[in-house]
Amino acid sequence: MAKTKELSKDTRNKIVDLHQVGKTESAIGKQLGLKKSTVGAIIRKWKTYKTTDNLPRSGAPRKISPRGVKMITRTVSKNPRTTRGDLVNDLQRAGTKVTKPTISNTLRRQGLKSCSARRVPLLKPVHVQARLKFAREHLDDPDEDWENVIWSDETKIELFGKNSTRRVWRTKNAELHPKNTIPTVKHGGGNIMLWGCFSAKGPGRLIRVKERMNGAMYREILSENLLPSARALKMKRGWVFQHDNDPKHTARATKECLRKKHFKVLEWPSQSPDLNPIENLWRELKVRVAQRQPQNITALEEICMEECAKIPATVCENL
Questions:
Q1: What top-level class would CATH report for the domain 141-162+189-318?
Q2: Which residue among 41, 101, 250, 306 is least enclosed by CB atoms within 10 Å?
Q3: Which of 182, 270, 192, 194 is nearest to 225 (CA)?
Q4: Secondary structure string (H, E, C) spanning 145-160
């Protein structure tokens, strides 16, 4: 049976107005071109609820009882990695047969949504305590203090790496046409290692590390590039240098080198790459490089240098 068209709010109100002036249901139906039963239903609703608006409908009864909802909500709260299949089986053992979409809809009404688990560094209790100590010590630091920090790190950029997602306009079944694909090779087709730094005022120097980096090489990079970067960025007196706790960075010789040059170093908690805003800068750089589509290692290095220099100071300030 075809669904009848719903009456507009104006029409429903007009039915009530005509009823209030004394017209019969038949007369109202003839005047408005409606069935007498329809007119009668509108008038009865108005008399009962004092409104002609649509009332909440009950709909189909829930497949999962309130007790079942509590059970599956408690289960995923204790173990967020519980699958929908596990919950279907739990309910089936309790005598309720449901589908996976029903599980999703039920949990969504409880404010729970299935999401990809975030990847985070593996933290031991000592790391947790160090990160908490760092946060408490710097909780009330003014913005000016963070603007006077030079952040640094190393990163690897692959020639054909998965640095960004590219979208293409294509017709059906044309997904494998060369124009609609991104070439990939095993292990990224080669890569380059970079050392770089930046502050709120913009990117500093970006250096390619051509050999396996050791402590001596790292100290050489700092000696040749850290102070020139600070000068180019016009850092204020008393600026602070940040690097992580890689053994090359915490070696006695490296600490002595920084001390002799009177560089102030930010004490950094281990296992905390997520605290370093340069990770976001590397992501920005990799997306920009991928959009240029370098075809060889030489081009990759040149494009990295070009795109790093183009990153606006406003992006760095936001980070």
A1: alpha beta
A2: 101
A3: 194
A4: HHHCEEEEEEEEEECC
Closest to 243 (Cα-Cα) out of 211, 265, 221, 262: 265
In tens digits, the chain (319 residues) has pLDDT values of 455 678 888 899 999 999 999 999 999 999 999 999 999 999 998 998 888 887 777 777 888 999 999 999 999 988 888 999 999 999 999 899 999 999 999 999 998 888 878 777 788 899 999 999 999 999 999 999 999 999 999 999 988 765 555 566 677 777 777 776 766 655 556 889 999 999 999 999 999 999 899 999 999 999 999 999 999 999 999 999 999 999 999 999 999 999 999 999 999 998 888 899 999 999 999 999 988 888 899 999 999 999 999 999 999 999 9
Give me the phi and psi of 150, to 5 degrees please.
-100, 115
Q: Label the pairing between strands 149-158 and 240-242.
A: parallel
Residue 155, CA atoms < 13 Å, CB-side half-sphere:
22
Give the start-to-end residue ranges of the domains of the chain: 9-49, 66-110, 141-162+189-318
